Amino acid sequence: MAEDPTRVLVTNLAAFSPAQTIELVGRAGVAKGNTRPDKVFLSGVSAGCLLSFAGAAVLSCNASPWYAENAPGLLRLIEAIIFPIGFVMVTLTGADLFTGSTLYTTVAVLQRRLPFWKMAVHWFLSFWGNLAGSLFSAIIIFGYGGVFSASPFKEAAIAFAIKKQVAPAWHEIFLRGVGCNWLVCLACLLSLQARGVGSKMAAMWWPIFALVALGLDHVVANMFFIPISIFLGAPGITTGLYIWKGLIPVLLGNIVGGVLMVGVYYWYMYLFGQPEVVIDGAGQHGAAVRQSVGDSTIDVEKNGGIHQ
């Protein structure tokens, strides 16, 4: 008896395999690396703004002095539940977050589908776009908007920044950055593995939940947390200190976490030395794949077109 094609199609709706997922990561990296520079920058601005909304919600949660003193673990758990909404908004709107770019474009370069210089340009533009969007939100929307001007919100925002910026050593912040983008890029990968919007949201939620619950450092999130505290007059935090301890070590750590721990690892495990990965009957490069559906034979091309 011939195999029922309906069963294959339903199975394919569940999720992509790990090999298909990292292949999709590479294809996304090619698309991102070849996007017009102005669009990459504006997309980065959007991502910085969207993530800042989630960061502001986290700071609002911190404005609970009793819980901060007596149940800090519970407070961090609540923050971890809330913060992933920022990544959901960024991912579902297709905005460019620098930390995610370290995964997508790295895989595309490893596949030799994207030149290194285009990856570097995408990193540069997305980073500065993220910074511009985060600063706009921190200073204009939440700063001059007076969102954290009143007590206890002002004290909560300042205390949060001091814990992140002043207390830890440089190497501790770097290592937290490694772990952070390891989880962020895993969230990016899992969101591509899922097919439905609800599944994508659930898939990316839990790695982001973990990084917040663990207190890890994300370079773009810090672009909001630290500048808003400086705006509010946090003692001991200056722009120079932020660059030295809140930007450089987190940036380097995020690059290591995204490039090595996720991009290079999954490329090596599932793509290096392997035949071309076929997704929904289509390869990246070429020839249409013949499939039989019922009594008809169709050509499924790489661009998704179906021709009888």
Automatic annotation (TrEMBL):
Record keywords, A-Z: Membrane, Transmembrane, Transmembrane helix
UniProt topology in membrane = Multi-pass membrane protein
User: What InterPro entries does the record point to?
Assistant: Aquaporin-like (IPR023271), For/NO2_transpt (IPR000292), For/NO2_transpt_CS (IPR024002)
Q: Name one Pfam family in it.
A: Form_Nir_trans
Q: Where in the cell is it found?
A: Membrane
Give me the segments passing through the membrane: 40-60, 80-99, 120-144, 173-192, 204-234, 246-268
Q: Which PROSITE patterns match?
A: FORMATE_NITRITE_TP_2
Entry similarity comment: Belongs to the FNT transporter (TC 1.A.16) family.
Instruction: Check the record and name the PANTHER family matching this protein.
Output: FORMATE TRANSPORTER-RELATED, FORMATE_NITRATE FAMILY TRANSPORTER (EUROFUNG)
The protein, known as: Formate/nitrite transporter
Which organism is the protein's source?
Answer: Apiospora hydei
